[in-house]
Write a structure and sequence with these properties.
Two copies of one chain form a homodimer. Chain A is of the alpha+beta class and 191 residues long. Chain A is 48% helix and 25% strand. In chain A, strands 1, 2, 3, 4, 5 and 6 form a six-stranded antiparallel beta sheet that branches. In chain A, a hairpin with a 5-residue loop joins strand 3 and strand 4. Chain A starts with a helix and ends with a helix. The model of chain A has no long low-confidence stretch (mean pLDDT 97). The interface between A and B is medium-sized, with 35 and 35 residues. The first copy, chain A, binds a DNA duplex (30 and 30 nucleotides) through helix 9.
DNA sequence: TCAATTTCTTAATATATCTTATTTTTTTAA
DNA sequence: TTAAAAAAATAAGATATATTAAGAAATTGA
């Protein structure tokens, strides 16, 4: 199991002894997925949090009208799950689907709870992870509320150039909350 | 200083000894504010996180065009700050203004850092706080992307009835990302 | 390599939401 | 209590974005 990336992800915020590292790694499971596979489907129970070793994932919600809203993308070195449903043991509100072939490490809710008990310093790690996620979402909310579609698009490609290059335009449109046709139109008008 | 509410807020997630409670309370400062006062102004440095003992606050961003976007409301028993700028010691992106006369307890970034050192269990508390904040924001993003204005309005008054009753309609419109005129129109059409 | 599928673009029309202006209602402060 | 200020409602016209449909381009899978 490839473990160097996840360890360096964690050790940027907390220090772990070799024993602790070993304990942590033993709680993980590796999973490999090919394009279009679903890591999680809306309505299913969401029992794991995933760390991306390689590849690209997309989390999206389909509403009653069938409209697709992209919640987030995850690339190498990112964590992803339906956090609300994971934490509260509820059926997932989102799908997580593979955009580019993935290798992920998964940690179950039970194992995460064990981890908090055994190595309380992981509370600090996930505090920082949650802080960052919250701040990202809040900034996105501000931009969704205050910027027109073209500017949101420009901010997106500026902030996530590697993602913008790797995913379909219609998926970016879904992240921005506009139709692919409209994204196409404003891109064309831009020049 | 009124301390029972903040202690019960914290002790719903972690246990503190009397000594720890005392230590924590000594890091806080009380502040009382009247309507329309600013707890924080856009561009200022954001050095504190605030716990609301009573009253109502509104955090909002004003963009280049002067458009007002409400980031969040905070009522009794809520925490509020510009989290991104607080954590990263950056000029605030939001204003925090008093909607109804407030009593707040403030904790500085320096004191929070001390607190993490002295009582590491506070990492767990703020982890849970950040988890909840992140999940709330993410749900809001999904709704912003997938629901029309009327349904977002209905969700808002269902989720926060006490806030909906206490703040101006134009502030709710600003939270929903629509103009007050349009909110007025869809409310009228509803019947 | 090639047929099939998916994605992207374009354009016409439709709809949601905004802007501006005015009037009515509510709240505030002296 | 009342005048002033702020908020809310209404409505007409403007704009951003959606919908539908079709064709072009790119990608996929056999």
């Amino acid at each position: 199991m490839k473990s160097d990336l996840i360890l360096s992800n964690i050790c940027q915020y907390i220090s772990l002894s070799p024993v602790e590292k070993e304990y942590f790694l033993n709680l993980l499971e590796e999973e490999n997925l090919s394009k279009k596979e679903f890591l999680l489907s809306q309505g299913e129970s969401c029992n794991h949090i995933y760390f991306v070793n390689s590849g690209i994932l997309r989390a999206f919600h389909i509403n009653q009208d069938g409209k697709d809203a992209t919640v987030m993308f995850a690339v190498k070195d990112w964590w992803i799950t339906d956090m609300y449903c994971f934490l509260n043991v509820l059926p997932s509100m989102v799908n997580i689907q593979v955009v580019a072939p993935c290798s992920v490490l998964k940690l179950s809710k039970n194992n995460l709870d064990k981890l908090y008990d055994e190595i309380p310093m992981f509370n600090k790690f996930f505090r920082i992870l949650m802080q960052n996620a919250y701040c990202r979402e809040q900034l996105r909310t501000i931009q969704n509320l205050s910027l027109p579609a073209l500017e949101r698009y420009e901010q997106f490609i500026k902030k996530y150039p590697h993602i913008a290059n790797a995913v379909a335009l219609k998926q970016i449109a879904s992240y921005l909350g506009i139709t692919p046709e409209f994204l196409s139109a404003i891109r064309a008008k831009k020049d």
